[in-house]
TrEMBL record, chains A, B:
Gene3D superfamilies: 1.20.80.30, ATP-grasp fold, A domain, ATP-grasp fold, B domain, Phosphoenolpyruvate-binding domains, Phosphohistidine domain, Pyruvate Phosphate Dikinase, domain 2. GO terms for molecular function: pyruvate, phosphate dikinase activity. Belongs to the PEP-utilizing enzyme family. Its cofactor is Mg(2+). Its EC number is 2.7.9.1. This is Pyruvate, phosphate dikinase. The gene is ppdK. The lineage of its organism: Bacteria, Pseudomonadati, Lentisphaerota, Lentisphaeria, Lentisphaerales. It comes from Lentisphaera profundi.
Amino acid sequence: MMKTQVLTNTTGTETEINPFRVYHFGKVQNDGNASMRNLLGGKGANLAEMSSIGIPVPPGFTIPTSMCTHYNDNQQQLADALMIEVDEAITLMEQQTATEFGSLENPLLVSVRSGARVSMPGMMDTVLNLGLTDIAVIGLANKTNNARMAYDSYRRFIVMYSEVVKGMDAEAFEELIDAAKSKAGVSEDTGLSVEDLKELCLELKKLYTELSGDEFPQDPKIQLRSAIEAVFDSWNTERAVLYRKIQNIPASWGTAVNVQAMVFGNKGASSATGVAFTRNPSTGDKTYFGEYLINAQGEDVVAGVRTPLPISKESAAQKCLDGQSMEETMPKTYVELTDVFEKLEKHYADMQDVEFTVEEEKLYILQTRNGKRSGFAQVRMAVEMVEEGLVDEKTALARIEPSSIEQMLSPIFNLEDKANAASEMVGKGLNAGPGAASGVLALTSAKAIEYKQLGVPCVLVRNDTSPADFGGMMAAEGVLTVRGGATSHAAVVARQFGKPCVCGLAALKVKESTGEISIGDKKIKEGDAISLDGSTGEVFFCKIETSASEVIQGIIDGVIDPNESEICKQYQTIMTWADKYRRLKIRTNADTSRDLKIALSLGAEGVGLTRVEHMFGSDDKLLLLRQVMLAKDEQIKTLALSNIEHFLKEDFTALFQTLNGRPATVRLLDPPMHEFMPHGDADTAKTAKALKITDAELRASLGDMEEHNPMLGFRGCRLGILKPELTRVQVRAILEAALELNSAYIPCKPEIMVPIIMHENELIHQRTLIDKVAQDLFAELGQKVSYSVGTMIELPRAALQADEIAKHADFFSFGTNDLTQTTLGISRDDANHFLPTYKNGVSDPLTGTGNFEVYPDDPFQTLDQSGVGKLVQLGVKGGRSTSKDLKIGICGEHGGDPASIDFFHRNGLDYVSCSPFRVPVARLSAALSAIRAEEVE
Amino acid sequence: MMKTQVLTNTTGTETEINPFRVYHFGKVQNDGNASMRNLLGGKGANLAEMSSIGIPVPPGFTIPTSMCTHYNDNQQQLADALMIEVDEAITLMEQQTATEFGSLENPLLVSVRSGARVSMPGMMDTVLNLGLTDIAVIGLANKTNNARMAYDSYRRFIVMYSEVVKGMDAEAFEELIDAAKSKAGVSEDTGLSVEDLKELCLELKKLYTELSGDEFPQDPKIQLRSAIEAVFDSWNTERAVLYRKIQNIPASWGTAVNVQAMVFGNKGASSATGVAFTRNPSTGDKTYFGEYLINAQGEDVVAGVRTPLPISKESAAQKCLDGQSMEETMPKTYVELTDVFEKLEKHYADMQDVEFTVEEEKLYILQTRNGKRSGFAQVRMAVEMVEEGLVDEKTALARIEPSSIEQMLSPIFNLEDKANAASEMVGKGLNAGPGAASGVLALTSAKAIEYKQLGVPCVLVRNDTSPADFGGMMAAEGVLTVRGGATSHAAVVARQFGKPCVCGLAALKVKESTGEISIGDKKIKEGDAISLDGSTGEVFFCKIETSASEVIQGIIDGVIDPNESEICKQYQTIMTWADKYRRLKIRTNADTSRDLKIALSLGAEGVGLTRVEHMFGSDDKLLLLRQVMLAKDEQIKTLALSNIEHFLKEDFTALFQTLNGRPATVRLLDPPMHEFMPHGDADTAKTAKALKITDAELRASLGDMEEHNPMLGFRGCRLGILKPELTRVQVRAILEAALELNSAYIPCKPEIMVPIIMHENELIHQRTLIDKVAQDLFAELGQKVSYSVGTMIELPRAALQADEIAKHADFFSFGTNDLTQTTLGISRDDANHFLPTYKNGVSDPLTGTGNFEVYPDDPFQTLDQSGVGKLVQLGVKGGRSTSKDLKIGICGEHGGDPASIDFFHRNGLDYVSCSPFRVPVARLSAALSAIRAEEVE
């Protein structure tokens, strides 16, 4: 039934628009389907889709978005032709539901909702029970045999209509309700009697008349017309316009209007309402899972006034509710419902979350959507649905959120224990390192190590952490900091080592002097219990039991047999599929062979980033670096350099040996110099002694080195250029290690990476130096090894000049942490002064309420694609314009973030490198990206 | 005489190359001219050009760059055909100079030089006196009647040939010379007798034979062949290749070889040598200016062993050297020389710097080039050459370096006094603010103000400066800092107020406690004399007299009548021409009406940047900001906000009134917050009291506010978004001021500018807020004024997202200071840890010598066109893709830098805004850019 529709607009010309003015949905006539989202909006398209496959949906119709545009193009006038079709559609609904608008016996009531292509705040919400009038309310009372409910609905409808449709101020109406309550001597709405409600309805209608000059409309069609106009008008409210501006939604899209017959689950014992999942959303188990209430409306299930009952006999039995399940009380309808479940699951080829109502034994489905599920359930359902033949591997994979895999790796709280601890929850910081940790409070690294030695699990709490806290962090079960974001030192180290971590809990006060921490009026001391959930950011001042996940126990620790664990087997299946479909290689950021072993067992294919500065973790190694930087005596310097070469060589040998031929990228020293220099009197005195200079001399040198903005200071290759001796010993150590392994027939071709390149001349300098050091070494030892030299792209200038830089680089690796800092002008260490508020909403300039979202994500967690991403694109384009096959990777924190990985996939990178525990997430994400890209093609 | 030349290369195929194998220059045959630079190299082209206009140039020939390419394409073999032509060319030279290669009477000696299109380090230097042999040296001795000179030349030639041409190690030769000296019992080379030198020549030749296995060549043609090969080989030395890589010079360009007959100014009383300018390079006066020496070689003039004499009678008379000028001693040749001067000046249409030699009354011109001249001379010559009809206005303008104008504005040292003070020069920092300053040493702002009140001129010396030093800087004659670069606080403020300033003199030690400063072993105390030259960076520990420039006295101070001053008139002429040709508008960065008045008298057309944070200069105003940021008592905050609104309104009123309808861009508050907060105990206590909180509470709040990298911290619009009340009072103050002026019939349409925009949502937020505040204010006052809202583009993300941002901006202004910091990842406050070394040369990775130039300029002075410039281009493109006619300016320090202004001109900006004293430079630069752009078209 395709016809071209012609409307005369106010200027007299005729406009050809979409074939229908209204699109019916329901059993009798159904004009749409899921693909018509742009025209019918999301809500309308889905209602039509369900109808199209024979699901019993309460009938209704959708006025398409094109009519909204027409309305706005014609001085906010509803076309007469449209209203004629609306009338016809109402008639059809009346026929189907055996009701009538305004009827004293069986009135037709409808809901009216807006529905754009995408959900949008600022637009008109739902108006329920439209069609209620002084007469219809009697009809509703009769029909439901519940006069109280009928008049309560009526008084709500009057207020909703006045406020939402007519834009009247809610306050005056609220005053009348309050007056009614005080007159009746009750404090709750529910205390009002039928008579009270009837009188209240009269008062409300009177107020409506006072405010509008009109009677409250007693013709449902007039109500409907006004509601349609209100939906269309809501498209252009100040708030909606501002939102569209921010989200870049064109005004021309418009909104649809959905008008649907109301059904009633509260028409007695043969009526009911409920929600259900077609499989268990917690465990993934293939059993129906849901709740229902007899003689109730949808909101009753949610409101919690009555306790809902399980739908299936089995669940009911588990809860000792024999004979009360829907399977038992409404066996016929239950079968109908499970048929719908099967049909829906098959149609959408996914687990469904279904809302239903039974009106006098007649089943209606009000909504279905793909059901949300826990990470474990996602994985299990994916594996089982493929086994069942419901979906193929790619589709199954595409359903899994990559963070589910992370959940499978993280230590976990016992859920019940956590729920019981809810009252001890003191705050929520940044969920910086997933997993659960519980232990006693430790405020210093030394204390944490002490507890560790005593065998007492502890949680390290610091204002922020520095490399000096490394030992303490390793000793602790988890880490909590007051300052710092998702890529702060604490967070990076925590994720690297799989430590649960919460960062940036700004409200927390740490008093090291008294050994106390407090938040608001809650306070604990060192030794008291504290727990944190790094997956959610929650912090508790109490103990909660945790355990290592099955996957960790089976795959890494080897304490259980992975073949005996269903969860391990599911994990392995998913990973095998992921590896089959992904194009991106996955490397890891590892500085020790210990990290590296974990990463390899989790599937890493090489090292994308070894940070030489992380090899200076211990006090004696730190001292060597201080000697090179600060000593005046050349002998001390020379000896220190030689010692550095020596220990680095050992570290590299261990690392390369573990890699056993896999690629290894080593980034030359890029220390945050201020963190590496002595702090405090004792440290300064000790260092001065080792440097054979006075404390005062050392302090003077440190003063000279001090920087206002160390992030933009003397670091990276700037150091290697001004102190070529540092580059020299690193290169020697790397190549000596490689030579030694090659002699032992272990292949190794190191990739040497130069950091913080801003100008090609810097790379020319370092590359020339590296090649010279290599040639000298090879001549010295009479042996050669092949190696390559590449660079980090981590400053905007490097990305912009990538073509020039590529002339001197064998590979690129994007350092998106630093690139984000400079591109956005945000220091990640200081971002918590404003970035969390940007995300959570700042004060709205129009209303003053705190819901103006400035920046949707944490750019240090998820790549800022339209800013930093553009530089990545320019860098890739520039680099490959010089070297067609230039190998390009990324080794920032974004290498473990699914959305960012997708971006890197789409932009042709060769690999991503992430911290060891992120490797499985990256493998899955890379596969999802490949699958998505195929779909797009 | 154009012929096509065919050469057979080693693979047997024939290559068609350039018409000649050698290009003659000189009177008898001259094949080239100035336009053939690519083929003949710069040197060769210029020699040919001079010959072509009849200037007497010693004859010779150029082997073109194409032969170098041919040589390299053919396994480093010189083509036989080439060597035949070289022989012929030598014969021609012999004929012209009546000499003969290797002659016992009158030997032909030649110089051999490399000469590429552009001058290039790493390439072969000059070999002089080629042609000397055991026989020719006798000929030279006879010819010059100076056996000592002849053998000294021979021994030098042997070493130079061995080293430069044959690549032998210089050290062994040096040892022989040392041995000769100790044998003769002398310490200087000049102590060696003719006999000593003869013996030394023998020893040196013996060593040559030992090292090479060959006799030292006694055939000048063999010497020449080897020298030609050496020049070509020098094109491919490691050093030259590395340099080309850095400078992007293609290997295919090759170098030319210049072979030129040597002439001798030391052949007795009728011979001489000298250098001269066709006009006075210091004053611009149209009189010949130069020096000469009778019976001398060129190097004698430079070496200073003998004192050269003036060439003109007039100059000689001034120096009481009657009868000794060339005009008097060699009247005929002097007339020939001045004829050459006139011819050259006319030909090149510019003042020439000429090197000449007279060999037995015959005049030779060895070199001419456009003469360097002082700023004053540049301006005077430009004006006078136009008056003379020698050049047109555009050409004259194009000759003036914009910095000349700056020189005309700067206070000046008396040149003689400065020369006398040379021994007190203690170091050279960054020439951050032009001009000369002299006074007593002041180490604190308070001290500087005290001296000012006593009427004692002083120079303020600080480690670095902050807003708290503003008063002291204004009180001082000049400012010197130990830290900080060309855009440090000190430098920016100094230039803004025309204060001479030297920054980053790192070797200086400041001891405030003892009131001393020292550098090396030189030390002075507060109250001692110190002087600095901000145009050169020189610092002196003594007094040197200074005075304000005539232009300042005439144009700004009005203490002299500009029409009575030649210099003022010249300045005005140049500025009038500049305004005639420029397209870019010139605005100024001004925060007070005092600055603004200066800028307007120097030609500014409006304000491009008023920094609201600079209006918080005094202690009481600072306190208001601290109250807003830190007070817990809402009443204190509210009162502070209202006081801020009040004083800002007054400041804006004064500013807008002075502008009198010219455009005014006001940038909302962007304070470096850490500089605005209290420092030290006293300040903290005072502030705490004003905030009605305890010192401890204040310290805690300050601790919370502390940032690791304030440059990337809580600033700019981030402040205005989280503290909308601050935006509110600023906008109210701006608009109230505008309304008041409009009421008094003074037009004013403020441009409100939002800083540090990273995301369009930030601008939407601030713009929505500004519009709301404006509407509320207009409603409140019943009056309206028009205004516009724009944004700074100063973060890479803003430039990359300019299309989105432009949707909400009426104008853009590039903040290239911050954009440079983030794009290059360099904090301008910390850059002196490495940036000066990058510019001056770091250790070369191959040789270890400190001549590897990483980055040629200070990117904070001259825009980094290939990095930051790309973002400016993307920003302009993006912005104008959204709004075709978007007004775009720039208000960073680069707005006053000529090279940067040229870039902004070429990229279609509408205006540049610079500090008041830079306005004339900007006017001239903009004109030069327009003229250059025309030439390119």
